[in-house]
Design brief:
The chain is mainly beta. It has four helices and 17 strands. A hairpin with a 6-residue loop joins β2 and β3. It is elongated, with a radius of gyration of 23 Å.
């Protein structure tokens, strides 16, 4: 059995109930990620103060019953929730907790949504087993199932390099340890001369450590690769020939909204939520970039959704702290 209270500071009870019912009905392809159980709404509607549901386990053997009591206060909502197994069990491996959690949880806990992504806090009355990691069970993707990644259609390199980029999330690779996930930026400019190796773009990358004083910066070069896709670049130290360069693909780019999704080439490795690139120097990395240094959570979520839809394992992305950065 699990009894808990959930507070939604930014959503009305009708909004909460509407999303819960949408998930129960499987809207927008929502499926129970806890081993494929099936929910049924047994009473209530979006306007009700009480919803009752049942969930049958994926193997069809067990049924749990849930009750949600919704108490509204203006634009916020507080929900008293309870789930109870219909057979005796000493240990339920957080199943009753997950029965409740999955009908409202969102991106803050890695949960799929139907329509609305909530912010919320949970407190427990009687729920000793409440391990969130048990709620979303993801099938591993085989490397042979990695979909070919398409890049941004109609890509304009001049627009892309016209302003500085600030990295909001990035994958840890050999040359970008998490210890340097502070005030990371990239500045691009056209080269006045291609030089001996034919590079057309200068790239200046900066990153700081947690003290925001210790700086790591490097200048490298880029050029379009030998394909006909202008969104596929490759990068390397300027003193090395292009055949040593690694892929740098602009997977998504919207200059008006000020974001870009960049991959170090085609992901080929099995991940927990999709496919990923390597973690070495070449053929590695995944980045979410924005024009504005101040993080816009809605934009980051949008780009994460784009990456997930394209088959990337977004669990590899780590936040970059862009607050309190040194003046430039």
């Amino acid at each position: 059995k699990c009894s808990m209270t959930v507070k939604f500071p930014g959503n009305s009870c009708q909004e909460v109930a509407t999303e819960m019912i949408a998930r129960i009905n499987g809207e927008n392809g929502w499926k129970d990620p806890h081993n494929g159980g099936t929910y049924t709404l047994t009473s209530g509607s979006p306007q009700s103060s009480v919803l009752t549901t049942q969930r049958v386990t994926g193997n069809g053997k067990y049924t749990d019953l849930q009750k949600f009591t919704l108490n509204g206060a203006g634009s916020s909502c507080e929900v008293d929730a309870c789930s109870e197994s219909q057979v005796f069990s000493v240990v339920d491996y957080s199943t009753n907790y997950c029965d409740l959690h999955l009908l409202f949880c969102g991106s803050q806990d890695g949960c799929p949504i139907a329509h609305t992504d909530f912010s919320y806090t949970e407190s427990f009355d009687s729920c000793s087993q409440n391990d969130k990691s048990k709620c979303v069970v993801k099938d591993k993707v085989s490397a042979s199932e990695c979909s070919p990644i398409s890049t941004q259609e109609g890509f304009d390199i001049d627009s892309y390099i016209s302003q500085k980029w600030y990295i909001q999330q990035q994958m840890e690779v050999s040359y970008l340890p998490k210890a340097q996930n502070f005030c990371v930026s990239a500045q691009y400019s056209k080269r006045s001369s291609k030089g001996i190796f034919g590079y057309t773009i200068d790239v200046h990358n900066k990153a700081y450590e947690a003290d925001k004083k210790t700086i790591h910066q490097v200048s490298i070069c880029a050029a379009e690769d030998k394909t006909s896709d202008p969104a596929k670049l490759h990068v390397a130290p300027c003193f090395l020939p292009q055949f040593t360069a690694g892929p740098y693909w602009i997977v998504a780019f919207d200059d008006k909204e000020g974001y870009a999704l960049v991959s170090g080439g085609q992901p080929t490795k099995e991940g927990t939520e999709g496919c990923r690139t390597g973690s070495g120097v070449n053929n590695s990395g995944l980045w979410i970039l924005t024009r504005q240094q101040t993080r816009d959570e809605a934009v980051v979520k949008k780009v994460r959704a784009i990456a997930k839809e394209k088959g990337f394992d977004i669990s590899v992305l780590n936040d970059v702290d862009q607050t309190g950065c040194p003046a430039e």
